[in-house]
């Protein structure tokens, strides 16, 4: 799997989990101590989150990093 594929899955999955909680990007940003612009840039694949930011997002959604980075939004890995 390429870095681009991992980043796309990460972006898609963060967006998916945010929408499952009926949250806006601004609400998620506030909940995890980030800016709305940072969440937007992660969800659109412009930027990777830092390790600290990724940890905060995972903790907020109560999921592990594997689920965000490697699984498709339907829960499969391939």
Secondary structure layout:
Blueprint: H1 3-20, H2 25-32, H3 36-43, H4 51-61, H5 65-70
Quick take:
With 78 residues, this protein is mainly α. The protein is built from 5 helices and no strands.
Question: What report would you give on this structure?
Answer:
The longest helix is centred in the first third of the chain and has 18 residues, at 3-20. Helix 2 (25-32) packs across helix 3. The model has no long low-confidence stretch (mean pLDDT 88). It contains five helices and no strands. The chain has 78 residues and is an all-alpha fold. Helices cover 65% and strands 0% of the residues. The protein has helices at 3-20, 25-32, 36-43, 51-61, 65-70.
Defining traits:
78 residues; mainly alpha; 65% helix
């Amino acid at each position: 799997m390429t870095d681009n594929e991992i980043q796309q899955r990460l972006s898609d999955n963060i967006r998916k989990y945010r929408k499952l909680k009926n949250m806006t990007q601004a609400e998620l940003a506030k909940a995890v101590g980030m800016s709305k612009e940072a969440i937007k840039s992660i969800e659109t694949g412009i930027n990777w989150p830092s390790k600290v930011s990724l940890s905060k997002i995972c903790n907020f959604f109560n999921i592990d990093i594997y689920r965000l980075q490697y699984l498709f939004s339907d829960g499969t890995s391939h």
